[in-house]
Amino acid sequence: MIIQSAQCPRLHSQLAWGFVSILAAVCLGVIALRRGEPVNAIWLVAASIAIFAIGYRFYGKFVEWKVLQLDASRAPPSVLHNDGLDYVPTDKWVVFGHHFAAIAGAGPLVGPVLAAQMGYLPGTLWILFGVVFAGAVQDFMILGLSLRRGGRSLGNMLREELGQVPGVIAMIGILILMMIVLAVLALVVVKALTHSPWGTFTVVATIPIAIGMGVWLRWLRPGKILEASLLGLGLLMASIWAGKFVADSAVLSVMFDLDAQTLAWCLIGYGACASILPVWLLLAPRDYLSTFLKIGTIVLLAIAIVLAAPSLEMPAVTRFIDGSGPVFAGSLFPFLFITIACGAVSGWHSLIASGTTPKLLANESQARFVGYGGMLMEAFVAIMALIAAAAMHPGVYFAMNSPAAIIGTTVQQAAVTISEWGFVVTPEQLLQTAKEIGENSILSRAGGAPTLAVGMAQLLHHILPGEGMLAFWYHYIILFEALFILTTVDAGTRVGRFMIQEIVGLLYKPWQATESWSGNIAATAVCVGIWGYFLYQGAVDPLGGINTLWPLFGIANQMLAAIALMLATLVVVKLKRERYMWVPGIPALWLIICTLTAGYQKLVGPISFTEAANRYSAALAQGNLLAPAKNLGEMQQIVTNNRVDMILTAAFIGLIVVIMAFVARAILKALQHKEPTAKEESYVALNDLATH
Amino acid sequence: MLRLTIWPRIKWRLRYFAGSARRTVVQAARLSVGVPDYDTYVRHLREHHPERQVPSYAEFYRERTEARYRGGGGRCC
Q1: CB neighbours of residue A233 within 10 Å
Q2: What pLDDT is attached to residue A676?
Q3: CA of A162: how far to CAs of A336, A354, A574, in Å?
Q4: Which residues pair with A74 in a beta bridge?
Q5: Which residue, A82, A149, A422, A487, has fewest beta-carbon neighbours within 10 Å?
Q6: How many other C-beta atoms can be found within 10 angstroms of the C-beta atom of residue A518?
Q7: How far apart are CA A127 and CA A123, in angstroms?
Q8: Is A561:A346 a contact under the CB 8 Å cutoff?
Q9: Do B40 and A514 count as a contact with CB atoms less than 8 A apart?
Q10: What are the pLDDT digits (tens) for A441-463?
Q11: What residues in B contact A349, CB-CB < 8 Å?
């Protein structure tokens, strides 16, 4: 009897997990094998949830028990260093919410949309399996390491475990990555707002709205965040509504009808000014709006997908897996794994998992929920973005995401070219879509945001139909992404400024004083100058910018992930748990292979920056002009830009090889030691502290 | 009879659940924008640093807003 009752719950649980496994297998089978007729998106949603559940329950626990060996009796940093502010033992749901809000961004929304050019299947498989075996493992393990080291940052842990020199090298890598992130995100905004008076007006309107909120929060009702945010939200909705009249008005629409280069300059100027204003005036209130809108929009997207249950119009696999795709160049391996970074595995998260989160966790046993679970959530957002893109008419998708150099600048040319690829679309359909969303043109709006906006607007329109609502939803999504990205640009410029001051401060002391005005302005100028250069380069790029910059961003982001996973591998070896070193080791190796291959292909061969630089400089030598350059000066500019990208790619390759060498040396050394050599803080029992 | 004894308990449970869920959501929302729980901080000050002056919520809020963007972590792409 006793034995039976003990086995009962296990039997239940086995049956339940058996059922989940079968569900996952059936759903995946349907997605992968059904041909000829469109698959419903619900299959994809169900497959993802089932796989995430299995990954969380089994692989996540395996990492927790065997690899990290987390211990619920051990006091975490939040208890050891409790200061009521940064280090506070916090409810696990609260920490989860905070962690998810910090890791979820524009990344998981953009990457999968771009990768949809290869069909929905490759992207889906990479997100599902990438997150379970690489992305969530990275976030969880870095969180676990930081928990055992007083909540230290990734840079600090690298310096401690690996040494000063590789630590500083990695820090410079992180700085460059951040500059590329800011440039590429700003470019997404530029692409979405080019010649879109409606969109531009609503985004400009966010500035006075945020300042109004700032004043409200500072003097009228200090710290009433919810109140101010609701007020701001109401004004934002009003600005979307007003945007239609701006677009329709002959005088106003000219004022807000800007080309890519002007927009790029506006953003650069804005970034420079915004990042030296006091934070309470513009940055903080806009941060509230973008954080809450982000969570709200993700929930909205989930509801829309479940209720609308769209079928996936995009083929499972398109012919563009061979590398001839118009959205980004390069074949499935390695470029799929570079393009979808956030959502499958993102190095950026290692900065957050070693930032605020480890200082808040009340117990080590909650780390899997927050670290592994949070990343699974992010992967789910990526899957939803992929669904929104794949549910669109493929012809419209390619019209929106292909550069003008390939599909031309008129709907007629675009329709002919895209229909030749096998995605039959008429010029009328393209015009109709543009008209429905209240824009003049949908052609060549790469960057993910507009595509997602159309996809999501169509889903929302499906469940909430109404005259003109499609245009409203479209501009809502554009506004949401722009708001969010502007916050990142502003906050990122500040963080970049501090990093520059820190790095330069190593050589020249006066720069370290972060209160000095001259130092601040100089460092801000350097920071804005770097990302601004890449943004401007993207705005004048022959292939539309995203095509060039997104791979650079992907390579940098995956490079950081590889560094984080290498650190995790090293620590596992140092703890004398060598038999589990493959857990972070294999994903690290995979990312190293992907980034090195992608880097190599961007340096040598038909899709490389070198080839583009040579082509333009050869034409320049003969005095010829190649589109889109209109004069020899612009030709020279394109040559220089490609040379800079070459140098940057080479630097990334060099960086990863150097770090790899340091890690390999440290691993070999650790293998020879008989005792654990990792620099963990010593064990303090939670119970001992509770009695104090 | 059964209804009379069980219903208040269910009501109490529901109210308790709704209250704690609301607190969790509010705390998570505040923390997501960099403002930790004020009451926890005040309790910490009273327990461990009775000599220090307890800041008002407005002062606490201002200090945290400044601290949020003072370098470090940041957010994701």
Answers
A1: 17
A2: 92
A3: 31, 16, 11
A4: A685
A5: A422
A6: 10
A7: 6
A8: yes
A9: no
A10: 999 888 888 999 999 999 999 88
A11: 76
Most distant pair of Cα atoms in chain A: their distance:
92
Q: How far is B38 from chain A (nearest CA, A)?
A: 9
Structure tokens at A678: 């990792």
Question: What are the residues facing A311 on neighbouring strands?
Answer: A40
The minimal CB distance from B41 to the residues A85, A96, A499 is found for: A85
Determine how many CB atoms are found less than 10 A away from the CB of residue A202.
Answer: 29
Walking along chain B (77 residues) 10 residues at a time, the average pLDDT comes out as: 73 88 92 91 92 91 87 49
Nearest residue to A410 (alpha-carbon basis) of A446, A453, A444 = A444
Contact A598, A338 (CB under 8 A): yes
**A562-609 tens-digit pLDDT:** 999 999 999 999 999 999 999 999 999 999 999 999 999 999 989 899
CB A398 within 8 Å of CB A117: yes
Q: What was the pLDDT predicted at A9?
A: 64
Predicted confidence (pLDDT) at residue A41 exceeds the cutoff of 50: yes
| Residues in chain B closer than 8 A to A360 (CB atoms) | 31
Pairwise pLDDT comparison (A276 vs A163), residue with the higher score: A163
> CB of A491 within 8 A of CB of A283?
yes
Question: Nearest CB to B69: which of A83, A86, A491?
Answer: A491
Cα gap A276→A493, rounded to integer Å: 9
Provide the percentage of residues in chain A whose pLDDT is more than 90: 69
Q: By mean pLDDT, which of A157-171, A416-430, A504-518, A581-595 is the weakest?
A: A504-518
Bridge partners for A654 per DSSP: none
Sign of CA dihedral A325, A326, A329, A332: negative
Q: Which two tokens stand for residue A354?
A: 């070693």
Instruction: Compute the distance between CA of residue A3 and CA of residue A6 in angstroms, rounded to an integer.
Output: 5
Mean confidence (pLDDT) of chain A:
91
The residue type at A432: Q
Centroid of chain to Cα A473: 22
Q: How far apart are CA A583 and CA A568, in angstroms?
A: 9
B43 CB neighbours in chain A (<8 A) are: 84
Report which secondary-structure segment, H or E, holds A510.
Answer: none
Closest-approach residue (CA) in chain B for A275: B69
* pLDDT of A627 over the 80 cut: no
Q: What pLDDT does residue A625 have?
A: 86
Mark residue A127 as left, alpha or beta (left: phi above 0; alpha: psi -120 to 50; beta: remaining). Answer: alpha
CB contact under 8 A, A97 and B65: no
Write down the pLDDT at residue A5.
Answer: 46
Is pLDDT at A94 greater than 90 in this prediction?
yes
Render pLDDT for A331-365 as a digit per residue (tens, 0 to 9). Answer: 999 999 999 998 999 998 998 899 889 999 999 99
Instruction: Identify whether the C-beta of residue A493 lies closer than 8 Å to the C-beta of residue A244.
Output: no
| Chain A residue with minimum CA distance to B43 | A84
Omega into A450 within 30° of 0, i.e. cis?
Answer: no
pLDDT score at A4? 46
Sign of the Cα torsion B46, B49, B55, B61 reads negative
Contacts of A333 (CB under 8 A, 6+ apart): A594, A597
Return d(Cα A343, Cα A558) in angstroms, integer.
Answer: 12
Cα(A99)–Cα(A55) distance, integer angstroms:
19
Give the DSSP letter string of A166-209: HHHHHHHHHHHHHHHHHHHHHHHHHHHHTT-HHHHHHHHHHHHH
Q: Does the pLDDT at position A1 exceed 50?
A: no
Query: Tell me, what's the ipTM?
Result: 0.86
Say how far residue A462 (Cα) sits from the centre of its chain.
28
Task: Please list, residue by residue across A180-201, b when 16 or more beta carbons sit within 10 angstroms of its beta carbon and e when fewer do.
Answer: bbbbbbbbbbbbbbbbbbbbbb
